[in-house]
Specification:
306 residues; alpha+beta; 2,3-Dihydroxybiphenyl 1,2-Dioxygenase, domain 1; 2 domains; 9-stranded mixed sheet; 8-stranded mixed sheet; 5 helices; 19 strands; 17% helix
């Protein structure tokens, strides 16, 4: 009998690394959403993503899918207390850990888990968000029978980037670029030269982390990367079936050049569906954009944070 399966894109990550750039090839693995009713939020995302939902403890739930993990914990509404990045193998994780330790970065070891695997550790960024680095086991999708209903299968969408809002964009850029080793791809500046936003990459994709200037620190959004424009359509149809309205888009970002649309979860936190994100080499220099709508949307209206 013939079978079909969805291959994990973690298999496409390089298994070698440049000792001078031990972060290169790290990808976003998990976003943790905190909210007072974590179970209800987890169930909303379970309906959206069609991934496997489990309860980890009395206050924590987790969704596991192909190349995406979402965790939900009890806490302040509309917050993201932790995100996790994964390396393709333990050797690169250990090389990166050694580099951070040599810089004097405070590292906290985590207990081995099915989510993060052995040797995971976390650090805290200038805004107090926890960053986990791990070499998680590769997720291989199970073989599916020919008669599987495609309408019940999870749509493809790798967890790709997380964006935070901050009152200290320069400090955040310095930390992620100079301390953690993320490579700056683009920055957006005001007419007086002040930094409005910065986009940084940990692999060839334009950004896996970004920061926007805002009146208050907090999460901005996270994004799932689609394989093509038709998948953007399929996700929009899926959201329509669930009566989840599109909040912004469809459009094309100037910075990153990706197609996108955004929705809101029950807290009003933004979720992005993206495709065709720009690819860059490891040594490609950052570009500078003027602060304005076209940096955010080449097709029309823009969500201006500041």
């Amino acid at each position: 009998m013939q079978t079909c399966f969805r291959q994990s894109t973690f298999r496409l990550m390089k298994t070698t690394f440049d000792p001078a750039r031990p972060l290169w090839n790290a990808r976003l693995l998990m976003v943790e959403r905190a909210t007072p009713d974590a179970q209800a939020c987890a169930e909303w995302y379970a309906l959206l993503l069609s991934d496997t939902l489990s309860q980890l403890d009395g206050k924590t739930w987790q969704l596991d899918g192909a190349d995406r993990i979402m965790r939900f914990s009890v806490g302040p509404a509309k917050t993201v207390p932790r995100v996790a990045f994964t390396f393709p193998d333990a050797a690169q994780l250990h090389a990166y850990q050694s580099q951070l330790a040599a810089k004097g970065v405070a590292l906290t070891s985590l207990a081995a888990s099915d989510t993060f695997g052995p040797s995971a550790f976390e650090i805290v960024d200038p805004d107090g968000r926890r960053l986990v680095f791990c070499a998680a086991p590769v997720k291989v999708s199970a073989n599916l029978p020919d008669d599987a209903d495609p309408d019940t299968l999870p749509l493809p969408g790798r967890l790709q980037h997380f964006v935070s809002a901050s009152t200290q964009t320069n400090n955040m850029l310095d930390f992620y670029r100079d301390v953690l080793g993320f490579m700056e791809s683009d920055r957006v500046v005001d007419t007086d030269g002040d930094l409005s936003s910065a986009f940084l990459r940990s692999d060839a994709e334009h950004h896996s982390i970004a920061v926007f200037r805002a009146p208050h620190a907090g999460p901005d959004h996270h994004a799932y990367e689609m394989p093509n424009w038709n998948a953007i359509r399929d996700w929009a149809d899926h959201c329509g079936d669930l009566e989840i309205p599109i909040w912004w888009g469809p459009g094309r970002h100037g910075v990153g050049n990706n197609l996108f649309f955004m929705i809101e979860d029950p807290d009003g936190y933004k979720v992005e569906f993206s495709s065709e994100l720009e690819l860059m080499t490891a040594d490609q220099a950052y570009r500078e954009w003027p602060h304005g709508p076209r940096a955010l949307n080449l097709w029309g209206s823009a969500w201006m944070r500041s």
